[in-house]
Amino acid sequence: MSIWTLVGIGINAAILMMVVVWYIAKRLNNAGYVDAAWSYGFTFVIGVFALTGSGDTTRKLVLAAMVAVWSLRLGTHILLRLLKHHPAEDPRYAELREMFPKRPWFMFFGFFQLQAILIGILSIPFAISASNPAPALKPWEIAGVILFVVAFLGEIMADAQLAAFKRDPANAGKVCDAGLWRYSRHPNYFFEWLIWVAFFLYALGSPHGWVGIISPLLMLLFLTKVTGIPPAEAQSLKSRGEAYRDYQRRTSAFVPWLPRT
């Protein structure tokens, strides 16, 4: 089975999954559940690749383990946040409702399907690796596994530090600048991006692996220009004002670096 046939299977599987998710979200009247489903979707797709891909079993199992661990942790992290605030809907989706007041769920159906297609495109490195029948992991794949472990632990640490900061009543209204957040305004996004770099490195151990560069490039675009940093910064400026502007002046936006004095 060719790489692109496998990618097509993944896209179709994600589309079917998002039809179910759209129905559930419609019943709950909260489109925000697509965020958790988007993360969980990669576990679903890598499972399809592991079962249908013609690649080496060990290579597929290692890849499936990495993708599933990352996908399930992130999806559950988002889901718990959604459940905490339900039935309140994320402001992004509330704004979309205002743009399509007559038939919002018709619009959301198309939006959910776009998310499914995006899952398929981002899964290209997975399809490349799952199609490689060569035995034994190559140096690029081992490097990918090592980077994945570092990035995964870094993302967990960043999320834990932010959660601990928010739990302390004394920090109400303050800006988290402790731990990793002292060196980056969005260390969680940085390590999330490194995870996708790790998936790309893993794909480089297979023929045509260079094509997998599309995934970290797309994630870098989304995280820094579209759905990641811009709305997060806007919300922080709205809620914390001058304190967050001062944090912006002295702290790197994405890549961890020494704070400016």
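The above is record 1. Record 2 follows with the same two-line structure.
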Amino acid sequence: MHFTQLILTNLGLIIAAMSLLWLVSIRVKDASIVDLCWGLGFVIVAWATAFQTGASDLRAIMLLALTTLWGLRLSGYLLWRNYGKGEDKRYQEMRDKHGGRFWWVSFFTVFLLQGLLMWFISLVVQSGMFHAGKLGIGFFGWLGFAVWCVGFFFESVGDFQMARFKARPDTEGEVMDRGLWRYTRHPNYFGDFCIWWGLFLLAATAQSWWTIGSPLLMSFLLLKVSGVSMLESDIEDRRPKYAQYKRETNAFFPWFPADGA
């Protein structure tokens, strides 16, 4: 099998899966399900790649396992967090804006777009697994595994700490500034950042340096599009204390609070 055949097959699989998910969203009148399946989509791509390549090499097995663990945790967490809460306000606003056209507009601007992003970002996993047997893991590969572990810790622990904070009845209008959130305003996004740079380093020594666009795109999305920028666009209106929190705490990369406390 040629690599081009592999990635085009996976692209077709993603488009088919996202099209099916879109049809389900029309049925249930909730486009938010696309977010719940974001991590799961990468798991599907990784397993489809393993099925086509055999995935018998240690690097391929590691890439498959790490992607699966990350994707299932993320989708499971989002499903638990959003269950029963209805459609996300972003999609509600789109639905109000486009009216009767939303059903097909959502296919291109939400489902197909996310599918294409998923395919491009997952190229690092697809290439790393395809070329896995060509070279040993080496220093950069094990460094990538270590970076991935740091990322998984920040993302999973950060989500857990925020969930506990929101579950308390006395936090209305308050700001989460404890635990990992004391050192970065977005430990979960920083964790996701490390996850994908870790996977890149693990895959890169298997003739996959060219896939650097994958973690770069994910970093751009986390920092400028669907991550930090979007979340902080109106948060001070809902949580006035956030302004002081911003002055004292790094937005992304963890560091000690500015007040030295």
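The chain has 13 helices and no strands.
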